[in-house]
Amino acid sequence: MAIGWYLVVSAMIFAIGAAGVLVRRSPLVILLCLELMLNAANLALVAFSRMWGGEDGQVFALIVMVVAACEVTVGLGLIVAMYRRSLPIDVDDLRELQG
Amino acid sequence: MSAVLFFIAAIGAVSGAIGVVMLRNQFYSVLALVFHLISLAALFLLLRAEFVAAAQVIVYAGAVMVLYVFVVAYVGGGEETATRSSLRILGPLLAIAIAIELCIAMLGTALKGISGKGAPYVPGFGTPEHIGRLFLTKYLFPFEVASLLLLVAAIGAIVLARRRRGLEPDAELEARYHPPRPAWTGTMAEGGGMTHYDEPPGQPEGEPVGSHR
Q1: What's the predicted TM-score (pTM) here?
Q2: Contact flag A2-B117 (C-beta cutoff 8 Å)
Q3: Among residues 31-70 of chain A, which lie with CB inside 8 Å of chain B?
């Protein structure tokens, strides 16, 4: 398959993830949609790595996976802390910082 | 054959992504993401990125998703109601706009390689040996920074999610370490007269007070 097809799939996944961040209300699902966007970027990186024939893009994709794991850890820690303080697990109700 | 596999994996990845966004139950969202990640690993394999595909399945679909499932079970993921704001209509429209724009931006470039099948395959491309050599020579500094970042994130998660009980005495813990015992059961403090009870010791031939627990 041509490399362009992979890039189209990557663009679609990224757009679906962005829509999920905007539409959903639970922070857990918003984290899942962030994962979708990071994975779309990973797919594009690996596709370009295949296009150029170098492995640098794959190394970059692995680093992105490490960063995604860190983001998940901290985000889930925040959600657990919110649950412990019996705050609503809902981004529409958490608007204290809005001023 | 490669085209068939590509379309199966691509449809799986996109439908998994749609499932993450559309499903109301959070458990099903997580499971849809697992499906999406495994399809994406198949796409990585088609792109000859073997090590990235293996890491995707083991680290992402294995470890990270288990963390998600645990947190959903802990928080008690139920059905969520749809958002009331105007984002409900604007969000999908914006997503379609982003998708079209990204396709135009990436496919409209003058890169010749986009319509080709990629660089000629050299044996060993994407194997752990090549990736590991790159990580330990050319990309040593990002590798170390990534390990430091993982450490900081682990500590941060522990600090965020721990119980904030503080230092006040815990009655239950106190009772476990100093169990209450009846009077005159023969401690050295009693023998030395250092503890004073209200009533003197009773007749010695009576039943032993609290002889066993």
Answers
A1: 0.80
A2: yes
A3: 31-33, 35-36, 39, 42-44, 46-47, 49-56, 58-59, 61-63, 65-70
